[in-house]
Amino acid sequence: MSTEQLAATLAGERMIADADLSGIDLSGQDLSACRFRNVKLAGANLAGASLADADFEQADLTGANLSRVNAAGASFARVNLGGAIAQAANFTTAYFAACDFTKTAFPQSRFVRADMHECSFAQTDFTRADLTRLTAMNTDFSSAIFAGATLRNVFFAGSVLTKQDLRTCDLTMAILNEANLAGVDLSGVALDRTSLMNAQLEGATLAGVRGTYAAMIGAQFANADLQCASFAMCDASGAAFGAVRADASQWTQSVLHSSRWPRASLRGARLIECDLSYADLSDADLSRADLSNANLHAVKQLNTRWDGADLKTARRTDEALARAEQWRAA
Fold this sequence. Notes:
The protein is built from two helices and nine strands. Helix content is 6%, strand content 8%. The protein is elongated. InterPro entries: 5peptide_repeat, Pentapeptide-BTB/POZ_domain.
C-alpha cells in the first residue's frame, strides 16, 4: 500500500487492518485518532507524525522512527516497539499494555501521566526522558537506562530496579513502595517526599542523599551505604539497617521507632530529636554521635559503642511506661 492509498483509506474510516506497511514513509502525516489493527509498520518512518489519540493493537513497530511524534492520549496494546527510535516524542497520557520495548530508545521523550501495564523494558533507553506521574506497577526495569530522567511522582510500586544507576534522576515524590532497589546507586539524589515503604534497598548506595518527609517504613537497608546522607522529618519506623555504613549521616527529627541497626556504623551521626524508641542498636557504633533530645525509650543497646556520643539531653527508658507497655502487650 502506497502513502497515497493509505491517505485515501484513512480519509474515510480512519482504520487500517491486516496490512503490511513495512518501511513506509509517513513522516509528518496526520494520523490522529486512526486505528491500526494487526498492522506491520516495521522500519516505518513516522517522524513528526501526529498520532494523538491513535489506537494500535497487535501492531509491529520494530525499528520504526517515532522521533518527534505527538502520540498524546494514544493507546498501544500488544505492540512490538523493539529497536524503535523515539527521540523527543510526546506520549503524554498514552496507554501501553503488554508492549515490548526491548532496546527501544526514548531520549528526551515525554511520558507524563502515561500508563504502562505488563510491558517488557529490556535495555530500554529513557535518557533525559520526562516520566512525571508515569504509572508502571510490578514492572522489571532492571536493565533500562534512566540517565538524567525525571521520575517525579512516578508510581513504580512493586517494580524491579535492581542495580540501577539513578544518580542523575529526579525522584521527588516518587512512589516506590515494595520496589526492589537492591544494589541501586542513589548517591546525592534528592528523596523529598519520596515513598520507599517496604522497599528492598539491600547493598544500595545512598551516600549523600537528601530527603525531607521521605517515607521509609519497613524498608530494608542491610549493608547499604548511607554515609553523609541527610534526612529530616522522615519516617523509617520498623526499617532494617543491619550493618549499614551511616557515618556522619543526619536524621533530624525523624521517626526511627522500632528500627533495627545491628552492627551498623553511625559514627558522628546526628540523630537530633529523633524517635528511636524500641530501636535495636545492638553492636552498633555510635561513637561521637549527637543524640540531643532523642527518644531512647526501651532501646536495645547490647554491646553498643557510645564513645564520645552526646547523650546529655537524650531521653532514656521510662521504666514506669515500659512496665505499662509490657502489661498492655500481655
